[in-house]
Automatic annotation (TrEMBL):
Chain coiled-coil ranges: none
Pfam hit, one: Pyridoxal_deC
Membership in a protein family: Belongs to the group II decarboxylase family.
GO biological process, one term: amino acid metabolic process
Listed InterPro entries: Aromatic_deC, PyrdxlP-dep_de-COase, PyrdxlP-dep_Trfase, PyrdxlP-dep_Trfase_major, PyrdxlP-dep_Trfase_small
Keyword tRNA processing set for record: no
Keywords: Decarboxylase, Lyase, Pyridoxal phosphate
Cofactor dependency: pyridoxal 5'-phosphate
Single GO MF descriptor: pyridoxal phosphate binding
Protein name, per record: Tyrosine/DOPA decarboxylase 2
Top-level taxon of the source organism: Eukaryota
């Protein structure tokens, strides 16, 4: 049943491209029509695909309809459906019609804009889009190209963190001896994303020089300037050099917010690079009511946020802004002869951006056109309405939890992340382990139903369930249905308000 041998000379034939692309689009349209019918998380056993697929690729190429049929029969049933309107785990991987269109243009044009000469329009569009996004999010002018800063589109926050850590490291080492790297210290809270610890190790900071600063319910699990100051001053007294501080706006576990201005003033005082990580909640900054959370950003050295989480932009797309592009490019630039281009020499002083010097990799996709299409298609007003709709859904769920004495809300719902556990279910103290076991059972029961998917977090030694609202297809009815599911499963696992079994 195999097809004819693959003809490499016709691999990008326009007619074949049009026909097979339409087949894929029709496939995906059918998938999205039916996605709500699938269990959000499948019951796929490890190795299930190996039992269904051959041990080796076909010798001869096969037709696209045959391939798509296998995707439908074997791949789709074993997926966790991130685009399901009932997916509330982790943070969303947003998608949209405009996001797909932009992704198709990016993939279809398939340019590699690592220097301006490699694709002038792609480079210039990226600098325009980064200024657009910065203005929309209310960032200070110092992060815009028009204000002396600038931005770049990375694949993930992890890449952005490594690049800014490298820039901070080189800035510090320029005034220290070569062995000074062993004295550099990185600071983050116990709520900060683990990528900062990984990034610090990658750029050579010793593991023992990474400070995880505790937070508490008293500060809604945000850092306090006092706790950071204590850690910094202790390190300075020990002969160490404070290097880099992360301030998070919307932490992964609880959606907590660190005080950017207070931390920025402390960072300036000690010459510390301040990075503001708004990977998730940065999308909400386009709404004026959330601007307070970025107050003091003019004191930061860098800011990042991920449009692929909550801004209708398909994976992958991370915005990184820096106040000093030179600090970034001096740490990351290379200038091999094969990348030089004599036609660009006349533009050397004209603000030309070579994005190869703003990232780890040389090769890079045309991400800017994807974000540009989303911005053009929905506009600022459309995106604000989109964000606010999810915020209202999350607050509805939070109010429902607060009205039910079986549950407690762990941290204020600032954006669209709700965090909660079941309370102890009878008088007296059943012990933390018993309560955690009950919450684990509840999460397993909810996810095992296939009717919703959530994840968990540990805070103060307590098992907490996370419900992140933000899917492109999620409506209020899905949130309300999930609340009924949580109540139903809480009853099944024994979450009663007293020993008599009354609610």
């Amino acid at each position: 049943m195999g097809g004819a041998p693959f003809d490499a000379l016709m691999s990008l034939d326009p007619e074949t491209f049009a026909r097979e692309s339409r087949a894929v689009i029709n496939f995906l349209a059918g998938y999205y029509r039916d996605v709500e019918k699938y269990p959000v998380q499948p019951e796929a056993m490890p190795g299930c695909l190996r039992t269904l697929l051959p041990d080796a690729p076909p010798e001869n190429g096969e037709q696209m309809d045959v391939i798509l049929e296998e995707v439908w029969r074997h791949i789709v049933p074993a997926l966790t459906h991130w685009q399901s309107p009932k997916f509330f785990g982790y943070f969303q991987a947003n998608a949209s019609t405009a996001g797909f269109a932009g992704e198709m243009l990016s993939t279809g044009l398939n340019v590699v804009p690592f220097t301006r000469a490699a694709s002038p329009a792609a480079t210039e569009l990226e600098s325009v889009v980064m200024d657009w996004m910065g203005k929309l999010a209310g960032l200070p002018d110092c992060f815009l190209f028009s204000g002396g800063g600038g931005g770049v589109l990375h694949g993930s926050t992890c890449e952005a963190v490594v690049c800014t850590l490298a820039a901070a490291r080189d800035r510090a080492l320029s005034r220290l001896s070569h062995e000074g790297i062993l004295r550099l210290v990185v600071y983050a809270s116990d709520q900060s994303h683990s990528t900062f610890q990984k990034g610090a190790r990658i750029v050579g900071v010793p593991r023992s020089n990474f400070r995880v600063i505790p937070t508490s319910a008293a500060s809604s699990y945000g850092l306090t300037a006092a706790s950071v100051r204590d850690a910094v001053e202790a390190d300075v007294a020990s002969g160490l050099v404070p290097l880099y501080l992360c301030a998070t706006v919307g932490t992964t576990g609880l959606g907590a917010v660190d005080p950017v201005r207070d931390l920025g003033e402390l960072a300036r005082e000690h010459g510390i690079w301040l990075h503001v990580d708004a990977a998730y909640a940065g999308s909400a900054l386009i709404c004026p009511e959330f601007h307070e959370y970025i107050d003091g950003a003019e004191l930061a050295d860098s800011v990042s946020m991920n449009p692929h989480k909550w801004f209708l932009t398909n994976m992958d797309c991370c915005c990184l802004w820096v106040a000093s592009p030179a600090a970034l490019t001096s740490a990351l630039s290379t200038n091999p002869e094969y990348l030089s281009n004599v036609t660009e020499e006349s533009a050397a002083g004209a603000g030309v951006v070579d994005y190869k010097d703003w990232q780890i990799a040389l090769s890079r996709p045309f991400r800017a056109i994807k974000l540009w299409v989303v911005l053009r298609r929905y506009g600022g007003a459309g995106m604000r309405a989109y964000i606010r709709r999810h915020v209202e859904m999350a607050r509805w769920f939070e109010r429902a939890l607060e009205a039910d004495e079986r549950f407690e809300v762990i941290a204020p719902t600032r954006f669209s992340l709700v965090t909660f556990p079941i309370r102890p279910w009878h008088e007296g103290d059943p012990g933390d382990d018993a309560v955690d076991a009950l919450n684990r059972k509840l999460l397993v029961a909810v996810n095992g139903s296939g009717r919703a998917f959530m994840t968990h977090f540990m805070v103060d030694g307590k098992f907490v369930i996370r419900m992140a609202v933000g899917g492109a297809m999620t409506r209020m009815r899905h949130v309300q249905d999930t609340w009924e599911l949580v109540r139903e499963k809480a009853k099944e696992v024994g979450a009663l308000t007293n020993d008599s079994g009354q609610y």
